[in-house]
Amino acid sequence: MVSKNQIKLITSLVQKKYRKQHGLFIAEGVKVINELIKSNFELEHLYITKPLFFGVSEKIKTLVTDSELKKISALTMSNDCLAVFKIPNERKIKTDGLIVALDDVRDPGNLGTIIRLCDWFGIEQLICSEQTVDLYNPKVVQATMGSISRVNVSYVDLSDTLINLELPIFGTFMDGENIYKTKLPSNGVIVLGNEANGISSEIEKIATHKIAIPRFGNLQLTESLNVATATAIVLSEFKRAT
Amino acid sequence: MVSKNQIKLITSLVQKKYRKQHGLFIAEGVKVINELIKSNFELEHLYITKPLFFGVSEKIKTLVTDSELKKISALTMSNDCLAVFKIPNERKIKTDGLIVALDDVRDPGNLGTIIRLCDWFGIEQLICSEQTVDLYNPKVVQATMGSISRVNVSYVDLSDTLINLELPIFGTFMDGENIYKTKLPSNGVIVLGNEANGISSEIEKIATHKIAIPRFGNLQLTESLNVATATAIVLSEFKRAT
Fold it and tell me: Among A39, A235, A152, which residue's Cα sits nearest to residue B230?
């Protein structure tokens, strides 16, 4: 059974303010929870609708009904388990190899997909502007499918941080140089911008290289690619030559 | 004002069965609706919360309140307008150039993103298995951001159709040949599979080329890329050489 206080605490964790206050976040579904446990995220409590996670101490497990789980779930389709984890301390930024930087990406699905792409392409560091959607938002945690544990995500003053890194900075712009014809290095920062507005003028000023994914269809259109699919193409281009 | 019957009709259109029965689908938001009007989709009716679409006859416009719009909207965040369009007749499959084929893609967001990618990369024909999510699902229409009007989408018996096309068939598999090292033609079919199960064994049998996007990160992991991001990378690879 879940107590009223537990329900209150867990449902509060959909808000960043309360995640910060309690230092906790939630994850749902066996796959994602397992990945987080394996990666040494500190498990605070597990809510399960059937016997699961045999390696976990019974002291931090609560058996709940489907309707109780639905009450605490942050997803439209609730799973058969929900876990509360401690938010770990932020780690130092890794400056080797390629780094991805996000300038105000707001959609949780996009951030989650980008983390999964970083994991696929062996990119260990993601730097986010402070206005980028929070990593521990339940929809982000879900969309990462466990990759959250393998990519170091840092929230920073993006402009200051990028200047201090002293690395080449590649920004994606509609009018940049054709990425297929650009020599791409194996270290540097790749900046992706906000869904509606792209890269801010502040970051544009410090970009050392402007690149673009050419459009092959109707050339008059101004509609851009979705930021997660643009990230997929850009990362593939950077890595294919290595 | 919206009548009870109109509300009943419009809200029924979130279900494929009723879209088929009435031959109608809905689209929301100025941008998407404008693209559909420009592309000669036949507009049945417009519901607007303020004066919009000045070129459209007043006879098929209804001014509604925000709360009325919310009642008929299929989206969590309703917009300031909703349109009901006629579903056009399916057009003949175009067999020139590259064709994308989807083997049971179920997620509306994925289908919408893939249509947008086809539009970006100048791919005019998308072939879907009958189990693929319906093109006129409101979430698909929304995710295409208007591209729905520029890509010809056909629902067919995928296996039969692919065999009859007599084109090279490229399937994406975890154990396929490194796509970065494969010679890719400028005509042929690229098949992407279901989110959970990939390409079915039926289609695997008729694939003439098995390709894969190499993983650069943790090589033990079996988790695949999301189908929309995989499509982005594969289409970029096929088109970059042209």
Answer: A235
